[in-house]
Design a protein that fits this description.
The chain is α/β, with parallel strands linked by helices. The chain has three domains: about 80 residues, no CATH class; about 160 residues, P-loop containing nucleotide triphosphate hydrolases (Rossmann fold); about 80 residues, Probable gtpase engc, domain 3 (Ribonucleotide Reductase Protein R1, domain 1). The protein contains eleven helices and 13 strands. The strands form two sheets. Strands 1, 2, 3, 4, 5, 8, 9, 10, 11, 12 and 13 form an eleven-stranded mixed β-sheet that branches. Strands 6-7 form a two-stranded antiparallel sheet. The longest helix is centred in the last third of the chain and has 45 residues. It binds guanosine-5'-triphosphate, magnesium ion (MG) and zinc ion. Guanosine-5'-triphosphate (GTP) binds next to helix 7.
Length: about 350
């Protein structure tokens, strides 16, 4: 038995994935892609396979849980995964609520379509969070402004996005229009994987349906008073499009709390990071210290003080989230060791 490379490529498999496998694995294993994460388990697909399996986790770390977009290696003809293949990228966030947990959004994503609408959902600070998520994962960020057909001033939203988020691709679209396939064409190609993220009600599932050419996913109208959605989509799934690309639909997020995203945040605010490097003091807080290059740029009108404030807030928050997750992981490890020791002692007594 050998790998069906051409068939696998249609699922997004790349040569670098083959290079991860041992000779024995190439002879005996079947790679499959996780195409949906449901409450009951995972849906996997690959050449000649499309079925459900129980959740799979490699190791004890929460990031070891297989998520949508992941590649699993099945043992021969069995439906039992042998291992989770290394990811080329991972989108994750601090799980909502009080728990210090990580939530995996999707793995092996090449393009991140950050979806917002030409209405009250539009918010530069929130878009910067999604941008940092994309940059951290090494995915190409593209901002999609849906409901351009409903707004009198879609152009104003597009210029606000282009001005506020320098260097980022922006497209104003009608997610229901067949023209959207052509508008997104420059950003991906066959075998690539994109993910849709954004608030509830911005039209993520509508866009998947339009690109599929059929109403496969349920969608629902938004609240008229504040443009908020109704959290219609509740699971993550990957869809294969006619152009050979793959698209992940995700449930709308109320809030995106970043964690382990210091690189991504610095990439989004690289202008400020560069300025800060020129401040006289290495630990300058840009709050009026002498020789502050950041303040000088604000005074010269080269930097928007609101942008500095957004960077500082995001940076503080990320540091806090990463530290509290690290603390919890250390506690978990300590607890795990304690349990193992207690079990070993119990066995000795028996
Ligand atoms: N006119 C117009 N309506 C749109 C557009 N995009 C989405 N809609 C409508 O907006 C509503 C919400 O769309 P959904 O696709 O369910 O939104 P969603 O982002 O998937 O929302 P969640 O699943 O809750 O995260 C639906 O009634 C869509 O028909 C658009 O570009 N133009
Ligand atoms: Mg949806
Ligand atoms: Zn400074």
């Amino acid at each position: 038995m050998t790998l069906q490379l051409a068939e696998l490529a249609a699922f997004g498999w790349q040569n670098s994935d083959t290079a991860e496998l041992s000779a024995d694995e190439i002879e005996t294993c079947r790679p499959v892609r996780v195409v949906a994460v449901e409450r009951s388990g995972l849906r996997i697909a690959g050449p000649g396979i499309d079925t459900g399996i129980p959740p799979f986790r490699s190791g004890e770390d929460e990031e070891g849980a297989a998520t949508v977009g992941d590649w699993l290696l099945l043992d021969g003809e069995a439906l039992r995964p042998r291992r989770l293949l290394p990811r080329k990228s991972l989108l994750k966030r601090r799980a909502p609520g009080t728990g210090r947990q990580i939530q995996l959004i999707a793995a092996n994503v090449d393009v991140l379509f950050i979806v917002t609408s030409c209405n009250q959902d539009f918010n530069i600070a929130r878009l910067e969070r999604y941008l940092a998520l994309a940059r951290e994962a090494g995915a190409l960020p593209v901002i999609l402004l849906t409901k351009a057909d409903l707004a009198d001033d879609a152009g104003t939203y597009a210029s606000a996005a282009a001005d506020g988020l320098p260097g980022v691709f922006v497209a104003a679209i009608d997610a229901r229009s067949a023209a959207v396939g052509g508008q997104l064409l420059p950003y991906w190609r066959a075998g690539q994987t994109a993910a849709l993220v954004g608030s509830s009600g911005v039209g993520k599932s509508t866009l998947v349906n339009t690109l599929l050419g059929r109403d496969e996913i349920a969608t629902a109208g938004i609240r008229e008073d504040d443009d908020k959605g109704r959290h219609t989509t509740t699971s993550r799934a990957l869809y294969r499009l006619a152009n050979g690309a793959w698209l992940v639909d995700t449930p709308g997020m109320r809030e995106l709390q970043l964690t382990d995203a210091e690189f991504g945040i610095s990439a989004v605010f690289e202008d400020i990071v560069a300025l800060a490097g020129d401040c006289r003091f290495g630990d300058c807080r840009h709050e009026g210290e002498p020789g502050c290059a950041v303040r000088a740029a604000i005074e010269a009108g080269d930097l928007d003080p609101a942008r500095l404030a957004r960077w500082q807030k995001l940076h503080r928050e990320e540091t806090h989230n990463s530290a509290s997750l690290a603390e919890r992981r250390a506690k978990d490890r300590k607890f795990g060791k304690m349990v193992k020791r207690a079990m070993a002692e119990k066995r000795q007594r028996e």
